[in-house]
Amino acid sequence: MRKNSLLFLVGAVAVVAFGLLAPWLIRNPFYFFAGYVILQYVTIAAGWNILGGYAGYINFGAAGFFGAGVYLSAFLFTAFGLPLPLCILAAALLGAVLGVLMGYLTLRIQGVYFAIATLGLVVVLETIVHNIPALGGASGMVVYGPPPPAWSPGPSQYIFTVMLLIAVASVSLARWVEISWVGRGLRAVRASEDAAECSGVPTLRLKLFACALSGAVLAAAGAPYPYYTSFVEPVTAFSLIIGLNAIAMPLIGGTRSWAGPVIGALLLASAQQIATVTISSELNILFVGLVLIAFVAFAPGGIADLFTRRQGRVTP
Question: What is residue 45's predicted lDDT score, i.e. its pLDDT?
């Protein structure tokens, strides 16, 4: 366990170091725009998996938390001029509060009923934003981000670096949940909630805690988005593709470990970026649907599970 933790720490430090050096080594800003999207997907996948993977509660409300983070960040900067780090922290706090509220209202139901209830969160939040003039309503709002700091060569490089730090922090949080008593309790809930309750596991508190963590990470993933696009509007911020990707990435990579969502996010986001440039962004939903069907049919445990089973067969 200590060896794995040390390897993870070294890997995380190496990724952050590369991310800080990359803006000075790579001049083409397109790579940073594409890299931002990939890192955003990694964060979304890691956040969704805390509740949907470890606890087994399939959450269709990822776009609601993401959109809430987008709009809170845009509002705080436009109205009060808060710096991006404070906007990200505020978005994470809002996501945690929304997660707890969603949990109190929906965790008493399971399966498809829970999934439908979480989807209602997206509809409610999008409707609220549509009817608030201070948030631009249906027309959206323009966000003129601040100039990048002196240590960053440009705005695209700066937003890439910020998203990299959020992604590394989110994956680290997901790994901590997996190896801690929280993860053990959530896996017990996933296996049999009644048995876990009878064994003394505080199931409701654990699920609420997982909702808070998941909501905080998903909202933090959306906080830098206004600075990336310079414009936000409800249909995009609460898009169906966000919720669909949030479910697809952990299922493709594997939901039983922190590495599975990362693998799924890297593969799916990279493929979508390539498809957007070479074919059309309109085919992304179709592509995600086909890939998801293929993995559910032929590799329901995801890529990580396939690798684990193969290692088990190879090891004498």
Answer: 95
The candidate with the shortest Cα–Cα distance to 164, out of 285, 311, 41, is: 41
Q: What's the pLDDT at 316?
A: 40
What confidence score (pLDDT) does residue 171 get?
Answer: 96
Query: How is residue 12 written in tokens?
Result: 């995380």
- Cα 206–chain centre separation: 20
| Alpha helices in the chain, H assignment, sequence order | 2-25, 30-52, 62-80, 84-106, 111-130, 155-179, 181-191, 193-198, 203-222, 225-229, 234-237, 240-253, 259-278, 284-298, 302-314
Torsion angle defined by CA atoms of residues 97, 98, 102 and 103, in that order, rounded to the nearest 10 degrees: -30
What is the C-alpha to C-alpha distance for residues 249 and 4, in angstroms, rounded to an integer?
24
Q: Which amino acid, residue 5?
A: S
Domain residue ranges in the chain: 29-245
Structure confidence at residue 315 (pLDDT)? 38
Region at 26 (left for phi over 0; alpha for psi -120 to 50; beta for the rest): beta
Q: 267-276: which pairs have CB atoms within 8 A and are 24 or more residues apart?
A: 267/303, 268/41, 269/37, 269/38, 269/40, 269/41, 269/42, 269/245, 270/38, 272/37, 273/34, 273/37, 273/38
26: which residues sit within 8 A by CB, 6+ positions away?
32
DSSP 3-state of 141: strand
- Give the mean pLDDT per block of 10 residues along the chain (316 residues): 79 89 85 92 96 90 94 93 94 96 84 83 92 89 82 86 95 94 91 85 90 96 93 91 89 87 88 70 66 70 66 45
Q: Using CB atoms within 10 Å of the CB of residue 274, give its burial: 0 to 12 exposed, 13 to 18 middle, 19+ buried.
A: exposed
Among 15, 62, 302, which Cα is nearest to 169's? 15
Q: Are 242 and 44 in contact (CB under 8 A)?
A: yes
Q: How far apart are CA 220 and CA 200, in angstroms?
A: 33
